[in-house]
Design a protein that fits this description.
globular; Alpha-Beta Plaits; 348 residues; seven-stranded antiparallel beta sheet; 3-hydroxy-3-methylglutaryl-coenzyme A Reductase, Chain A, domain 2; 2 domains; 44% helix; alpha+beta; single chain
């Protein structure tokens, strides 16, 4: 088997000051976009000079939506209406297969005689792709046995929504819903980011918010969440295709006196610390580096990893937006860093 090497460096440390994480953490990012290390590192410096980033998990769930068909909407509706009363039975089916999978919600949705059922589970320290699919298979068998009016269509009916942009994931979540925030003194904005709090707040409204609306973006208002998220996913053994839904998120800014409140909301952050890809030596080293391979209660290492990912997203987002308040700065940085990298490689 051949492997594809992706350059990887650590950035930071990022200072966290929240109730769950209150420490400085060095974060690995794997990317071909070499300026990403420097720009995220600049955001990390801001975190240290601003008292730290506060990050919190708002919600967590992994999803799979099965698709079944009835002869008529009347039959499909009868099944959908009956499911809430049988929730305990559904929970038992899920728990009997796995110690870590727990069913927390069921959302039926009708389109004509088609019945889509979105199952939502917590999955411990695993990202949960396989866990929810196995649960969905078991639940599908039960449905077909209990309700002979139903016909199997697919274990995944695209309302999961796995690796596709959607409104439902932004509304109900898929993975960890994480918010990270920091209050940046004006002096730090001026000295480190080379800009003013008012300019960053204005840019967020006119670029991220209005620009995204004008473009028809779906529940997304950010500059480049995907860059940091991909680098983080590749460095920690995640399914990198999940950046499609993972990069959906919003930046919110406020002027507080002379200072800048800056936050990122990431509703679909899919990470795990166990499972496929996590046994690779470099992944194990990176998880250990961030304190995400410790003996903790089930799910706590994955939650810690999600909080750190959101912190890295905030750092990179903040720095890029600051650069874009200054004419020419973004391109000048790319030319300086990427040409230097190419020249160094050619001369080596």
């Amino acid at each position: 088997m051949h492997t594809a090497a992706v350059p990887m460096k650590t950035i930071g440390p990022i200072l966290f000051a929240g109730p769950t994480i209150h420490e400085s953490i060095t974060v690995p990012l794997a990317t071909y976009e070499t300026p990403l290390w420097a720009t995220t590192n600049r955001g990390a410096k801001v975190s240290r000079l601003s008292g730290g980033i506060i990050a919190a998990i708002v919600d967590e769930r992994m999803t799979r939506s099965v698709l079944v068909e009835a002869a008529s909407v009347v039959d499909a509706l009868a099944v959908a209406s009956a499911l809430p009363e049988r929730f305990v039975e559904l929970q038992h089916i899920v728990s009997s297969r796995s110690r870590f999978a727990k069913l927390i919600a069921v959302h039926p949705h009708l389109v004509g005689n088609l019945l889509y059922i979105r199952f939502e589970l917590t999955t411990g320290d695993a990202s949960g792709h396989n866990m929810v699919t196995q649960a969905a298979d078991d639940l599908m068998q039960w449905l077909l046995q209990q309700y002979p009016v139903l016909r199997h269509i697919s274990v995944s009916g695209n309302m999961c929504v796995d690796k596709k942009v959607s409104a439902i994931n932004g509304l109900f979540g898929r993975g960890k819903h994480v918010i990270a925030e920091v209050l940046i003194p004006r002096a730090v904005c001026q000295q480190v980011l080379k800009t003013e709090p008012a300019l960053l707040a204005e840019l967020n409204i006119k670029k991220n918010l209005i620009g995204s609306i004008a473009a028809g973006s779906l529940r997304t208002a950010n500059a480049h969440f995907a860059n940091m998220l991909l680098g983080f996913y590749l460095a920690t053994g995640q399914d990198a295709a999940n950046i499609v839904e993972g990069s959906q998120g919003m930046v919110h800014t406020e002027l507080r006196g002379e200072d800048l409140y800056f936050s990122v909301s990431v509703p679909n952050l899919i990470v795990g610390t166990v499972g496929n890809g996590k046994d690779l030596p470099f992944v194990q080293e990176n998880l250990a580096l961030m304190g995400c391979a410790e003996p903790r209660a089930p799910g706590d290492n994955a939650r810690r990893l999600a909080l750190i990912a959101a912190g890295a997203i905030l750092c990179g987002e903040l720095s890029l937006m600051a650069a874009q308040t200054n004419p020419g700065e973004l391109m000048q940085a790319h030319v300086a860093m990427e040409r230097h990298t190419v020249t160094s490689t050619q001369n080596s």
